[in-house]
Amino acid sequence: MLLSTRRLLSTFSAPLKALHKSNAHRAALASAEPTRYDYIRTEVASRLVDRLEDVRDRDFPVALDLGAHCNHIHEHLAAEDSLSGNGGGIGGVRRLVTIEGCEEIVTGTDPVQEERVQTYRVPGISEHSMPLPFPDETFDLVISSMALHWTSDLPTTFNEINRVLKPDGAFFLAMAGGATLPELRSAVLLAEEERDGGVSVHVGPFVDVSSMGMLLGNSGFKLPTIDVDTVTVTYPNMFTLCEHLSGMGESNASVNRRSAGGGAGMSRDG
Known about the structure:
The protein is an alpha/beta fold. The protein is built from nine helices and five strands; from the N terminus they run H-H-H-E-H-E-H-E-E-H-E-H-H-H.
């Protein structure tokens, strides 16, 4: 598969995505249930951190969380039952550097500093900002949960991640793939074609799992392993689903989305 640089750089709007996340975070703080829409990120972060325990006889003392959001990765790394033999959290992580592009989330969410997993924020930097502001071979581990599916230029992002990893470092990534929200994607496209005689992007054009191995291999990663996890959530109707996607900050950030009207994004247009 050949992807042009121009196409990669124009798929998603990073400022629009930051605005969606900012609006969702402010709405959550003003509501009676500030964590109501966190269930997907919490579940995916938990599954991703659990993968660290599959790496036997190896610790990752210094880690980078790329797209930290509300510190779900930190919470699972430093959970009460995560003590490792060396006193760190899961995977032996003792220092966690976090990058989050939404300033409202950065200033409004302060991780509890556990003695076994100390967290350090990098201000003013987005997970979509490249190059990463670190020297070569800085980290034992780079981990990213539900953040990079809105990144237009994944090859450059993967190249930078590989650069800042130590030679024997590891990269753990969880992101929404091409099969995300298939029912919503089909329903909206069919309805729009019937109504308007054409279709537009309502659900993000995410990377297929078949392409991930190639992208990682081209960026210099050795022995990439790709798993597909399905998280099934049932909603009473499409409008409730769109409400939850908006509450998650997952509204559509595609550059060629419709400028007005309904639709959905991870998903919903906005």
